[in-house]
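pasting for the record
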Amino acid sequence: MAFGVAGAGIAFALQEVIASIAGWVAISFGGFYRPGDRVQLGGIRGDVIDVGVLRTTLMECGQWVNGDLYNGRIVRVANSFVFKEPVFNYSADFPFLWDEITLPVRYGSDWEYARETLGRVVDEICREYALGSREAWKEAVRKYQLEEARIEPMITLAVNDNWTEFTARYIVDYRKRRFVKDRPFSRMLEEVDKSNNRIRLASATFELTNMPRLDVQFSSGKGSVNPQYIP
């Protein structure tokens, strides 16, 4: 009886260790990830440095650092985690990501010219990633029976109460998402400056127009009234 209770206590105490060892077996033979992959385990995102019997070691990205950039912290996650939460792998069979930028353009701008300019800029910057990803995407479609998706840059337009909003969707290497996102914005600012007001960027400001004339009367203190107006 005593041995049974002791055995049950030991098994309970070691359940996390046993689960972590089982997780290591699943990671090693199930292809979850390997050193060099960028993954997200729950809310922790980073590059895999080492896969041990009990823990996976990551160089963390994000948190107080915007974008997919290292923040300098080394994180160790128990391998049992793979049985509890989804595992996101950025670089397994298809080492590219789709990303988007949005550009708000004021009403009255030449929206066709704005669309053509944004498409040209994004295509120049991201064409090499689209070409490089083509074979990898074909293999992913064949392997996983995915539906076909457009890998060339694409521009879409939406209209709201304040402005017209262009969205540029493009494919990029998962390691260079932050770097690539900066380039279309920089180029579009240059194009806006050269457009002679054909493209005017919108912002969340308020413009008052067609205000009625306001008549204001001031008392002199002696009964007289001096009417004035504000045009």
